[in-house]
Amino acid sequence: MLKTTFDGLTLENPLMPAAGPLVGDDDKMRFLREEGCGAIISKTISTKDPHIPKPCIYGDRQFVMNSELWSEHSLSTWLHDFLPSYQKDNDRPLIISVGYTKEDMEILIPALDPFADAFEVSTHYVGTDLSVIAGTIDTIRKNTNKPVYMKISPHIPNPAGFAHMIKEHGANGVVAINSLGPTMMIDIDSRSIQYGNEQGFVWTSGPVIKHLALAVVYTIKKAEPSLTVIGVGGIASADDVIEFLLAGASAVQMLSAALIKGKQLYKKIIEDLPKRLEAHGFHSVQEVIDTTLTNDVKYKRQVPELIEEKCIKCDLCVQVCPYFAIEMKDKITFDAKMCFECGLCVTKCPTHAIVMRD
Ligand SMILES: Cc1cc2nc3c(=O)[nH]c(=O)nc-3n(C[C@H](O)[C@H](O)[C@H](O)COP(=O)(O)O)c2cc1C
Description:
- There is one protein chain.
- By secondary structure, the chain is of the alpha/beta class.
- The chain folds into two domains: about 290 residues, Aldolase class I (TIM Barrel); about 55 residues, Alpha-Beta Plaits.
- The protein has twelve helices and 18 strands.
- The strands form five sheets. Strands 3-14-13-10-9-8-7-4 form an eight-stranded parallel β-sheet. Strands 5-6-12-11 form a four-stranded antiparallel β-sheet.
- Strand 1 and strand 2 form a beta hairpin.
- Helix 3 runs parallel beside helix 4, helix 4 runs parallel beside helix 5 and helix 6 packs parallel to helix 7.
- The protein starts with a strand and ends with a strand.
- The model has no long low-confidence stretch (mean pLDDT about 95).
- The structure holds flavin mononucleotide.
C-alpha cells in the first residue's frame, strides 16, 4: 500500500529524512532506518571543513532557523568509517547528499559511488547561474550511472528552467526545496543578532515553508513530467505527505518538524499514512501519485451562508472580515453589498458554520 518506485529504486514507504543533523553519521542514519523511513539520506558531504557558527539551530512552533552548513565530518571519515559500517546491514535505498562545485564532484562522486544507490546534489551555495549547475551535472554524469537528484534552493528564480536544464544534462530528478533564505532573527533586548552566519543571516524551514515547497514541486512536475520529484519543506503529518504526492512528488523528505516535535515523528507519520490514505479515499501511495490534480478555482459569484445550528456566536468572523460585511445581530448576518466573497470567514470559523453557496 505504501510502496513507491522510481528510477529503479523501491521504497517501502515514501518518507525519508532530509539532509541535516539527524543523518549526520551512521548511528543516526541507522536510528531513522529503524524508525521505518523508506530510504535514508546522508548529511551533505563536501571536500572542505565547514566553519559553523554556534548556536546554529533555533526551533519555534512552526519553523526552524539554522546556520548549519554541510557535514562537520570529513570525506575520509564517511568513506572509511560511517558508510562501510552503515552498509553492513542496510536493507533500503541510500541516497548520498553531496555539495557543491564541479571540482568537488570530481573527488566526491567516484569515491562515494560504491556506497550510493543514488546521489542528491545540493546547489545551496553555488548561486543562481544555471550554466554553473549544468557543468556540475556534466561532471557527475561522467563519474556515475546512478540516479542523480538535484536539490533546488528556493532562491533559484526559475524552477521550470532549472527542471529543463537538469533534464537536458542527464539528471533524474529534483529534490524540492532546500531551506528558505537568507532570513533574519533579531533579539530586541540585546540589540543583536544571536543566530546566523557572519552576514547575520539564517535559513528558514519547517511548516511555514510548506506551501512554497508545494508550488515548486508542482511547477517542476508540470514543466518536466518525466523527471522524478522528491518533495521536501514543511512536512509534519501524513496529510502533508499526501499533499506533496498530489502536487507531483514520488517520495518526500522531512527534517524540521522532527526537530520541533521530536524524532518519533517519522514513525508516527509512517504509521498514520494508511489511515489517512483511506480517510481520503485512496488505496495506495501509487494511486495518489497517479492522481491528476484538478484546478477548481472559480471566478463566479458565491456568497457566504450561515449554518445556524453550528454557530457558537464567538464573533470571530465579525472581527476578521476585511470588508466589514458581517454583523452579529440575533445571529450572524452577511451584508451582500459589502461582502467581497473572499472566503476568509469560511476558513477562520472554528466550527465550520459558514459555507460559500453559488
Ligand atoms: C539544521 C538543518 C541542517 C540542514 N542541513 C542540510 C544539509 O546538510 N544539506 C542540505 O541539502 N540541506 C540541509 N538542510 C535543509 C533540509 O534538508 C531541508 O531541505 C529543509 O530544511 C526543508 O525541509 P524541512 O522543512 O522538512 O526541514 C538543513 C536544514 C536544517 C534545518
